[in-house]
Design brief:
This protein is α+β, with helices and mostly antiparallel strands. 28% of the residues lie in helices and 26% in strands. It folds into 4 domains: 2-97, Rossmann fold, CATH 3.40.50; 126-218, Dna Ligase, domain 1; 222-355, 2-Layer Sandwich (D-amino Acid Aminotransferase, Chain A, domain 1); 364-459, Phosphoribosylglycinamide synthetase, C-terminal domain (Glycinamide Ribonucleotide Synthetase, Chain A, domain 4, Alpha-Beta Complex), CATH 3.90.600. The structure holds adenosine monophosphate and glycine.
């Protein structure tokens, strides 16, 4: 079987690595892939014209799939899904894993996603939607001045509030409606912060069309958990959602949850504080109504889904859907998958998830991310990466490359990447999140010790990481 993985990050490297272990897979293509995917067994990077979020790139990929008798394509990131790659492939009769453009609105419009949650009773925080700056600002002013109606779902009626603490104990969460690459959520602790967020999104247009409509949400305190899942929903058939083991990303740049939001500084799986009652609550009040909603709305969704949860005691609130696997959660979850990923993909395509033998290895994975100096702002690029091989052979840790490529003028990918190592000077940094080290241990503590031991063997100028991935 021949499979294309579309995307260029650490998530796609992890997908390629896991798929390459399947006896059913004869050939893998990463489109365009990165310095890690190109060295994996059976895998070849295919640099095609345009990227798969553009019409030109989609045509080129489709053409490639036809000419090379590719059996199916897996789409890693959200941008091609938002741009309708699944619709284009399905129209041409090519098998592809991901939701169509309409179903992808669960991620591409937060207002749409919230309305969907409200329609089907998916447990989530209160919210209001604004497309006019003045109205949003008025709302924020009232909230921070205490003379306001509280956040109520859009009932129309303004409700007088009993006295509440002033200034308000909770910040307001201001979110851009559209895709914003992790830059669309501001937690405003004061009117000044709220006003500047609203101004930059709605007036200055810093996020373009994505910030023209915004949501103001109630702030939910708790611990975040990511649940990745395989989904097979097609009109007219009973749908299926198969959840994976829970994972936890660490989104703030600095240890202890401080500093700016990033694409993710490291992940662990499973999550020690998420089992039993909260897990049951997730199934009952989030997963089940989500599936019912997808069926009722006759969505075409054969792909992966990410539930971003806030867990308070035993209760789960859904913060967001992503219509794809999480990054870096995938790098922490896939090393624990005790099943053939290619078989799982076929079950997604054929609607056979209910009989799929999903199993997980014992133990835990800790997967810290190494980033380039300056990230998440402007960051250094082009620095050679060196790796102490012993750090990886001792710990059996795995290196998943995200933002690193071959130095210009080099044609051969380092084969040693497939053994979880990068030989010295074979790759240079090219992105903000450069790589993830994923180590497995019989306990979280052991996984964490091994991951940091291996990471200590990786160096490039300006390397930075969080020291506390999985520490609490
Ligand atoms: P999102 O893009 O919706 O996942 O938001 C990015 C991050 O902002 C989340 O991972 C949370 O850390 C935080 N966040 C989003 N919505 C809320 C909320 N309603 N309450 C508290 N934190 C939130
Ligand atoms: N780790 C969060 C995401 O993939 O969006």
């Amino acid at each position: 079987m021949k499979v294309v993985v579309a995307g260029a990050g650490g998530r796609e490297h992890a997908l390629v690595w896991k798929l390459s272990q399947s006896p059913h897979i004869t050939k893998l293509f990463a489109a365009p892939g990165n310095g890690g995917t190109g060295g994996e067994a059976k895998c070849e990077n295919i640099p095609l014209p345009g990227d798969s979020a553009s019409a030109e790139g989609q045509e080129a990929l489709l053409d490639f799939c036809k000419k090379n008798q590719v059996d199916y394509t897996i789409v890693g990131p959200e941008a091609p899904l938002a741009a309708g790659i699944v619709d284009r492939f399905r129209q041409a009769g090519a098998a592809i894993i991901g939701p169509d453009q309409n179903a992808a609105r669960l991620e591409t419009s937060k207002a749409h996603a919230k309305a969907f949650m409200e329609r089907y009773g998916v447990n989530s925080g209160k919210f209001r939607i604004f497309s006019e700056y003045e109205a949003a600002l008025h709302y924020a002013k009232k909230y921070f001045r205490q003379d306001s109606p509280d956040l109520e779902p859009r009932t129309g009626a303004l409700r007088e509030q009993p006295a509440r603490p002033f200034p308000p104990a909770s910040p307001l969460v201001i979110k851009a409606d559209g895709l914003a690459g992790g830059k669309g959520v501001i937690i405003a602790h004061s009117l000044g912060e709220a006003e500047s967020a609203l101004h930059s999104f709605m007036r200055e247009g810093v996020l373009g069309a994505a910030g023209k409509t915004i949501l103001i949400e109630e702030f939910l305190a708790g611990r975040e958990v990511s649940i990745l899942a395989a989904v097979s929903v097609s009109p007219g058939k009973p749908g299926q959602i198969l959840p994976f083991i829970p994972a936890r990303d660490h989104k703030s740049r600095f240890s202890g949850g401080t500093g700016p939001n990033t694409g993710g500084m490291g992940a662990i799986a499973p999550v020690p504080d998420f089992s039993g009652a909260p897990q049951q609550d997730f199934i009952t009040r989030i997963l089940t109504p989500t599936l019912r909603g997808m069926e009722q709305e006759k969505l075409e969704y054969r792909g992966f889904l990410f539930f971003g949860l806030m867990v308070k005691d035993t209760q789960c609130f859904l913060l967001e859907y992503n219509v794809r696997l999480g990054d870096p959660e995938t790098q922490a979850v896939l090393p624990l998958l005790d099943a053939d990923l290619s078989d799982l993909c076929r079950a997604v395509l054929l609607g056979k998830l209910d009989s799929f033998p999903l199993a997980w290895k014992a133990g835990a994975v800790c997967a810290p991310v190494a980033v380039a100096e300056g990230y998440p702002g402007a960051y250094r690029k082009g620095d050679p990466i060196t790796v102490a091989a012993e750090a990886f052979s001792h710990t059996k840790a795995r290196l998943f490359i995200a933002g690193a490529s071959l130095p210009s003028g080099t044609a051969q990918y380092p084969q040693a990447v497939s053994a979880g190592r990068v030989p010295p000077h074979s790759l240079v940094t090219s992105g903000g999140r450069v790589l993830t080290v994923a180590a497995r241990g019989s306990t979280h503590e052991e996984a964490r010790a091994k991951a940091y031991q291996a990471l200590a063997g990786v160096s490039f100028t300006g390397i930075a990481c969080r020291e506390d991935i999985g520490a609490s």
